[in-house]
């Protein structure tokens, strides 16, 4: 009887540990791994569906996803005046910072091409319709899929866990493949990306520029990629801890800009605030001042809020208390301070709107529609186009929340 009691006690303890671990995984790390699918529009824009192309030459170069499968991209060929213009958009989707989260990730579309959609809608900056995407609709438009978990920068492996961290190789082999398909003749090129892909577009911006002749017009756009090394609500640094794991696990340090790593530790050089002022290529930063992902997963994640004081606020800004809003206003000020040096360059562009949003180039309603967010009567698509084509200098910063009534604020259940 005593032996049976001990068996049940052991089972109960194991069950509790399993449940606790499961809740912890779902509440924190899952949001960091997968992020959110912001590219899906709520409105019926009848988007063009574009098929997945796997890069067959990647395997021989070891440029593979976390699980060893081939990486890929979606490409819609340009035509007319856009035939020799290329828009490369790097997919986002969080990061994995330890073996456990990376093993989970390799069983999803963020870590394996086996699970990737065979077709995806091209909306927003990828749309093929002039009334939805006035400046880039007839360009060669490419969405590079994200399956490494380190913003296309890692280069190592973990044989025991059967994990390949080959983001840098994936980036290079994708560019080589596209060059062979006509991108080498580009007269105009724009490297963009959303979220973790927005960080990647910053990290790879100068590399991208160097792939083309000096006569080509080449610029970069980071959407929701300005991740800050900010203090969370408990006084800790949740995102720095995450990035430290990503950089160490995936061998990222070897592929970070040397102009940063000679002065700072590798983790600091994964934060865009320490990179943007030294990028030589013209760069446009598009970011919500109250970035939804950063609020949920960096500023007020459940791990930093064990009593749930921030739970309602992090899901819906309308439920934030006055003190919580003051904290978020402080985060906005920190963001504005981080871009001061960057904004002094005449070639750079800026669009910081006071919205609770994330990834505004991929969603049609936030990129260019009748009710799109605006600053000074200018929608995001027009601001980016004006900057890229040198029609106007664009450095616009919204007044603080709640003054902007054009936002498409994200609310989570």
From TrEMBL:
Which segment of the chain is annotated as a signal peptide?
A: 1-21
Q: What is the enzyme's class at the highest EC level?
A: hydrolase
User: What GO molecular-function term can you cite, just one?
Assistant: pectin acetylesterase activity
Q: Where are the transmembrane segments?
A: none
Keywords assigned: Cell wall, Cell wall biogenesis/degradation, Hydrolase, Secreted, Signal
EC number assigned by the record: 3.1.1.-
Q: Which InterPro entries match?
A: PAE/NOTUM
Any one biological process term the GO annotation gives: cell wall organization
| Compartment annotation | Secreted, Cell wall
Show the GO cellular component annotation of the record.
plant-type cell wall
- Keyword Translocase among record annotations: no
Entry superkingdom: Eukaryota
As for what it does, the entry says:
Hydrolyzes acetyl esters in homogalacturonan regions of pectin. In type I primary cell wall, galacturonic acid residues of pectin can be acetylated at the O-2 and O-3 positions. Decreasing the degree of acetylation of pectin gels in vitro alters their physical properties.
Similarity remark: Belongs to the pectinacetylesterase family.
> What is the name of this protein?
Pectin acetylesterase
């Amino acid at each position: 009887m005593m032996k049976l009691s001990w068996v049940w006690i052991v089972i109960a303890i194991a069950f509790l540990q399993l449940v606790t671990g499961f809740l912890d995984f779902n509440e924190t790390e899952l949001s960091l791994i997968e992020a959110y699918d912001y590219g899906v529009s709520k409105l019926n824009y009848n988007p063009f569906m574009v098929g997945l192309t796997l890069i067959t030459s990647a395997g021989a170069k070891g440029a593979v996803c976390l699980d060893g499968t081939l990486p890929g991209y979606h490409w819609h060929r340009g035509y007319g005046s856009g035939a020799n213009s290329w828009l490369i958009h790097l997919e986002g989707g969080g990061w994995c910072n330890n073996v456990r989260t990376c093993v989970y990730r390799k069983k999803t579309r963020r870590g394996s091409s086996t699970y990737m959609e065979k077709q995806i809608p091209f909306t927003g900056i990828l749309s093929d319709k002039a009334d939805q995407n006035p400046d880039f609709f007839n360009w060669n438009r490419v969405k590079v899929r994200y399956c490494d978990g380190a913003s296309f920068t890692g280069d190592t492996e973990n044989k025991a866990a059967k994990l390949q961290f080959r983001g840098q190789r994936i980036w290079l082999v994708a560019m080589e493949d596209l060059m062979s398909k006509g991108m080498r003749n580009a007269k105009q090129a724009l490297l963009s990306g959303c979220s973790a892909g927005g960080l990647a577009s910053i990290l790879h911006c100068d590399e991208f520029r160097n792939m083309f002749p000096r006569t080509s017009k080449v610029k970069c756009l980071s959407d929701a990629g300005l991740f800050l090394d900010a203090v969370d609500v408990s006084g800790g640094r949740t995102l720095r801890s995450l990035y430290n794991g990503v950089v160490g696990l995936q061998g990222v340090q070897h592929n970070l800009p040397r102009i940063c790593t000679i002065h700072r530790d590798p983790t600091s050089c994964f934060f865009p605030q320490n990179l943007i002022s030294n990028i030589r290529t013209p760069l446009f930063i598009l970011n919500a001042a109250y970035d939804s992902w950063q609020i949920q997963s960096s500023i007020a994640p459940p791990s930093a809020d064990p009593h749930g004081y921030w739970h309602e606020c992090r899901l819906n800004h309308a439920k934030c208390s006055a003190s919580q809003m003051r904290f978020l206003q402080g985060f906005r000020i920190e963001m504005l301070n981080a871009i001061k040096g960057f904004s002094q360059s005449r070639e750079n562009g800026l669009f910081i709107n006071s919205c609770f949003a994330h990834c505004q180039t991929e969603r049609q309603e936030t990129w260019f529609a009748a009710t799109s967010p605006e600053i000074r009567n200018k929608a995001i698509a027009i601001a980016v186009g004006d900057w890229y084509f040198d029609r106007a200098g664009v450095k616009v910063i919204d007044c603080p929340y709640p003054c902007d009534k054009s936002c498409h604020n994200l609310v989570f259940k």
